[in-house]
Amino acid sequence: MGSPWQVRRKLCAIGLALIPVLCSLHAAPATAAPHESARACIDPAASARAVVSIFWRYDEPRRDGWQEIIGERATAWFYTSPRLLVTAAHFANELPTDGWQEAELRQAVHAGEAEVTARVRFRVAVRGRLPGPSRDRAGLAAGLAEDVAIIELQEPFLHATVLDIQPKPLAADATVLVLGYPGGRMEAAQGIVRGRGELADRYAGLALFEVQGANRLLLDGGASGAPVLDCGQGRVVAVLNGLLTGPSLPFLPPDRVIPTPWGSPTNTAVPASTLAAMRNCIP
Description:
mainly beta
């Protein structure tokens, strides 16, 4: 849970040609619409200019079996300024702590307008603490609750809008809207806060919600860092940082991902109260 989405290239055995897989930058849809609108919610297009896909390319490709990993992708959103972006700390975890880095930002826009793509220089301004491998379950949950980072751009992003936060947690069964870039494509998904049950106890300190619609695995690779908005006023109540899955089944391939049961959480997120506390640490 919470691993950064790695952009890979597969080595073909014939001729050793490099074939990109999972790393094409698809054109985003002209408008962002929730997969289901069972309850009234804000228009996703109103916040589209505040959210971007961020892609960071490694200096040198990394190997994973027959695949080359060329970089990592996440979602980020503008906070307080067109120069400050919030994302998941596990995306920024390998970035140097000083100096400017290069990345690509992509942003879906309104119908009839061109998609925005920009090369930017950025650095990590504030990075939350991630759990180490030796922590117990309680320590793991506490560490994941700090899985958020603030990134500073060298130059403001043109036409960016910023999002406000709501540090007060939402009640169980409240509706939320998530704007993210799983797979590098803009998606808007409506969800329901799930604040009770065994998973809520296991991941105490994190916000949990269930994606509405048939695709319960939608907010996976590339969506980390996405803002979770309250459906009433469009303020950020949490920052997406993980996908929850069900136990594997013996008759399915071991790498087959099983969604959680209906009525249970599909994703974890860092509460906005953590981000509010970090704001004072911005240089």
